[in-house]
Amino acid sequence: MTLLDFARGPALQWSLIILVFGVLWQLLGTILIGVKKDLSKPRRNTAVRDGLATIATRSLPEHQFEKKIRFQHFSGYAWHVALFIAVLFSAPHILFFESVLGFGWPHLPNGIILVTAAIALAILFALVIRRLSHPVQRLISNADDYISVIVVIVPLVTGMLASAHIGARYETLLAIHFLSVEALFVWFPFGKLMHTALTFPSRFRAGAAFGRRGVKA
Amino acid sequence: MRKHQTLGVYLHAQGVSRRAFLKFCSATASLMALPPSAAAQVAAALAAARRPSVIWLSFQECTGCTESLTRSHAPTLESLIFDAISLDYHHTLQAASGESAEAARIAAMEENEGEYLLVVDGSIPLGNPGYSTIAGMSNLDMLRETAGGAAAIIAVGTCAAFGGIPHASPNPTGAVSVSEIITDKPIVNVSGCPPIPVVITGVLAHFLTFGTLPDLDHLGRPVAFFGQNIHDRCYRRPFYERGQFAHTFDDEGARKGWCLYELGCKGPTTYNACATLKWNEGTSYPIASGHGCLGCSEPDFWDKGSFYTPISAGLWGSRETLIGAAAAGAALGVGSALAARARKKKARAAEEAES
User: Fold this and answer.
1) Who has the most CB within 10 Å: A71, A150, A168, B329?
2) What is the Cα–Cα distance from A15 to B133, expressed in whole angstroms?
3) Is A95 on the interface with B (CB under 8 A)?
4) Is residue B1 part of a domain?
5) Are residues B60 and B170 in the same domain?
C-alpha cells in the first residue's frame, strides 16, 4: 500500500469516523446539558426571535470595542471567506465531497482557488503574528489555539503545493495533503475548531436567555 | 541477419537509409535525455553493434506486450532493430516447439553465458508451481535457471515489473514480479499494460550503445521515459488549470476535449511517456482518444478503486460506517448530557437537604 493509498483509504475512513463521532458527541452533549431553570417571570416570550437576532447582531461589526478590534474583526471575516472559497469551490475538493456526500456543485478555476488560498494563508499568518505579539492575546492563548492554527495552516500549504506541483511528486504531495486534512478532522471535535459547530447555537442560546430578561445580548 | 553481422550492415541491407538511421539515433538519444553530442555515439555504437542474444520468457501474461511490439501495420525502424537482435527464444514468435524450443533456450544460454539479455513478460506464480508451466518446468524454476547467466533482465510490462493484473487482489496464484525473485542481476522495469514499444527499443539501444542500463527511478524504470507524469505532459493540462472538465463521456466538455480528471483520469499519479511518444507511430494515446489514463504503468493499478473515481476522492469503506459513527456519537452525546443533568439534580437535592 502506497502512502497515497493509505491516505485515501484507511486514514481517511478513520479520521471521518472520529470527526462525525466527535462532533455529534460534543454538540449534543453541550446543547442537551441544559441550563438552570429561570424561575423569574419572562419580560417577553420572544426567545426564538431574540436568539436569531443575536446571531445576526454578534456577526456585525457594531460593537462598543469596535475601534480596538477592527483589524481582528475584518481580517477574521476575510480569512473565513477566503478559506471557504478555497475549500468549497476547488474542483478536486468538490469531487472529494461528492464521494462522501453523494452530490457536488459548480467549481472555480484553479488559478482563483490558488490566489484565494494564498490570501487566506497570509491573513492567518498575520493573525498568528498578532496573537503572538499582543500581550493580552498571548496571555489568553493556550496550546489548543496554536494546535488549531497549525492543523489549518498545514492543509492550506500542502494543498497549494499539490495544486502547483511544487516540492515533490504529485502523489506524495497529494498524500501529505490528505493526511494533513485528516489530522484536522481528528483534532476538530476536541479543540477550538469546534467553534464552527458551536458559534451559532451559543449565540442563539445567549440571545434567547438575555431576551427573556429584557436585556440586549 | 547473420549472428556476427553488425546492425549497421544489416539495416543497410534492409533498405534503411543512413539518414533514417541517424534520425532514429538522434531521437533515441533525445528520448533517453542524453546530450545532443551523444547521438553520434549512439549511431556509431549501434552501427557497430553485433546482435546480442535475447531470451524472452513469457509467464502469466496475455501476450499484449508482444502484440505491442509486433502488431504494427508496417515495419518500423524499431521493429527492424528488434529483428536485429538475436531473439533465440520466444514462445509466441519462434518456429520451434517442444523439446527443440527448449533446446534453443539452453543452447543460447550456454553459448552466451553472462552476456545475453533476458526479457520477461508476465508475472511468476508462487502459490503452486502448476499454475503456469512451460515444457513441464515451473515459471519460477525457468526464471531462476535462465536469469543465472543473464547480463541483465528487462521486465517488460506491468505484470513482470510489478505483478500486474495476476497480482491483483486476491492474487489467487500468488503472482509476483521478477524483481521479487531475482535480486542479484540488474533489472529494468519497462512497465505499462502494454508498454510503449519505443521504450523497449530505447532500453535495448542504450544497452547496445553503452553496455550499461539506463538511469532508473525508484521503481526500477528508465528515468528518461518514466521521469514525468502524464498529467504534466498532457495536452489537456491547460483545461485542468482553467477548471474545464468533462463530467461525462458524452457531454459538451468531452466533445471539446476538456480535462478528464473528473472522470477518474490517473494521469497526475502515473509516470510514463504516453503523452509524448504516444502509440501507433505517434498517432494517439488513451487520453487523446477521450478516455482517462488508467495508470497501467504503476504498481497495483488494478487495486486502486474504480478507474472512474477521481484521484482526489477517497478510497474509503462506506457511508454506512459514517452513519454508525454518527449514531454512536449522538448516543454518547445524549448520554453524557443526561448524566450531567442527573449529577446536577443530585447535587441540588443534596444542597437543599443541607439547607
Assistant:
1) B329
2) 46
3) yes
4) no
5) yes
CATH of the domain at B301: 4.10.480.10
Four-point Cα dihedral B249, B271, A95, A78, nearest 10: -130
Domain end marker among B226, B249, B282: B226
CA distance to partner chain A, nearest, from residue B200 (Å)? 25
Domains identified in chain B, total number? 2
Residue B71 placed within a domain: yes
Using the 3D structure, point to which of B195, B226, B257 is the last residue of a domain. B226
Residue B2 has pLDDT above 90, yes or no: no
Give mean pLDDT, residues B179-200: 92
Q: What angle do CA B275, B60, B208 make, to 5 degrees?
A: 55
| B45, part of any domain | no
What is the value of ipTM here, to two decimals?
Answer: 0.78
Which pLDDT belongs to residue B189?
Answer: 96
Is the model's pLDDT at B77 over the cut of 70?
no
Tell me which residue range forms the domain holding B294. 228-341
- Answer whether A74 touches B (CB < 8 Å): no
Contact B55, B153 (CB under 8 A): no
Q: At residue B281, does pLDDT exceed 80?
A: no
Residues of B within 8 A of A174 (CB-CB) are: 268-269, 311-312
Q: Does the pLDDT of residue A127 top 70, yes or no? A: yes
> Which chain A positions have a beta carbon within 8 Å of B338's beta carbon?
32
Please report how many Cα atoms fall inside a 13 Å half-sphere around the Cα of residue B217, on the Cβ side: 19
Residues B180, B251: one domain? no
- Asked whether the beta carbons of residue B314 and residue A8 sit closer than 8 angstroms, the reply is yes
CA distance A84 to A79: 9
Predicted confidence at residue A139, as pLDDT, reads: 94
Residue-level pLDDT at A188: 95
Query: What residue of A is the nearest CA neighbor of B321?
Result: A17
- Cβ neighbours of B312 in A, within 8 Å: 92-93, 95-96, 174
Question: Does residue B179 have a pLDDT over 90?
Answer: yes
Report yes or no: A29 at the B interface, CB cutoff 8 Å: yes
Query: Is residue B287 one of the residues assigned to a domain?
Result: yes
Between B39 and A93, whose confidence is greater?
A93
Residues contacting residue A192 through CB under 8 Å, at least 6 positions apart: A144, A145, A148
